[in-house]
Amino acid sequence: MNKTEYLKRLSDELGHMPYGDVKDIIQSIEEHFDEGLSEGRSEDEIAESLGDPKELAAEFKDGAKFNQIMKKRKKMADSFKGPDGRGRIFVIILNAVVGIWAWLILLAAIVAAFMFLAGDLGIAGLLVASLILGKITEFIVPCIFLILTLLCIAVFLIALLILGIKYYGRGLKAYIRWNKHVWNYGLGED
Amino acid sequence: MNSQIKKGILDLCVLALLEKGDSYGYDLAGSLARKVEVADGTVYPILRKLASEGIVSTYLQESQNGPPRKYYHLTDSGRKKLNNEREEWIKFCGEVNEILERETGGKADEQD
After folding, report:
1. Which of A51, A63, A66 sits opposite B40 (nearest CB)?
2. Which residue in A83, A109, A151, B98 has the fewest CB atoms around it within 10 Å?
3. Nearest to A49 among B40, B45, B46 (CB)
4. CB under 8 Å to B15, separation ≥6 — which residues?
5. Which residues span the domain enclosing B86?
6. Residue-wise pLDDT tens digits, B69-82
7. For residues A38 and B66, is the Cβ–Cβ distance under 8 A?
8. Which residues fall within 8 angstroms of residue B77, CB to CB, at 6 or more apart?
9. Does residue B10 sit at the A interface (CB-CB below 8 Å)?
10. Count of domains forming chain B
11. What percent of chain B has pLDDT over 70?
12. CATH of the domain at B68
């Protein structure tokens, strides 16, 4: 393969890279050929030792990809390291205004549901005990209905509490993780 | 040698070559390819990556015969990176060698 062929193959393989980058790369490889030629080597020989243009292009493309990732990471790191530290301020304000209160209110709702459940079961238990001990002589049928209703409410509350606690835990975990991320890396695109 | 293992350490080799003094692409390609079994072209993507990371800087210098050459210079951050990673690599190599040599040593003992 001669110099022209090699450079053509390389630039074809570089494909979608920005024009300026391709031009730069081709220029550096062209210089390599010129240096080799001035040492008295042949174009074929230089092309051979440079390696497969397809592989070389792949290495250039890998390098460009790596750079993009590093730039993105640096940008994310800078967004919180920057003079304004926006990520941290955002986390503090969000939690002071909404975050902590919202989670406390939800926690209070769960505690209230527990207390309600305890009361509900307490009354039901009291009624059952009174029935068994024969303290209630009138309204026996409505009383049984009331007990059944209270038990239904209890089952419903227990189911609600199990789901509530489960999702409260998960939600809180995710929320804390997200806060940490914003704290450390700022509000990046990712 | 496995090309994945090689790929990771070549950056460091290029930095080490530049530690001795500024150099240009063709010269670095030759120096690297003489020591390690890689294609001459390999050095160019590495130099490009290092330059865009600010680990090396470039400048043009007139050559006696032909057009000016693009020279590469190791920056302060590059020097720091080289020193850190060189130490890590040497330590790592020592550990790996110890494992590998113990293995082969054991086999040699069995043959005795």
Report:
1. A51
2. A83
3. B40
4. B50, B55, B56, B74, B78, B81, B82, B85
5. 3-111
6. 899 999 999 999 99
7. yes
8. B54, B55
9. no
10. 1
11. 88
12. 1.10.10.10
Cβ pair A113, A161 in contact under 8 A: yes
Q: Is the pLDDT of residue B105 over 70?
A: no
Q: Is B30 on the interface with A (CB under 8 A)?
A: no
Q: Does A18 reach chain B within 8 Å, measured CB to CB?
A: no
pLDDT at position A30: 92
Instruction: Note whether B44 contacts A38, CB cutoff 8 Å.
Output: no
Q: Please write the tens of the pLDDT for every residue from A93-126.
A: 888 888 888 889 999 999 999 999 999 999 888 8
Using the beta-carbon criterion (under 8 Å), do B40 and A31 form an inter-chain contact? Answer: no
Contacts of B44 in chain A (CB under 8 A): 25, 28-29, 32, 56, 60
Cα B62 to the center of its chain, rounded Å: 26
Task: Tell me the average pLDDT across A7-26.
Answer: 88
Among the residue ranges B13-17, B24-28, B88-92, B108-112, the one predicted with the least confidence is: B108-112
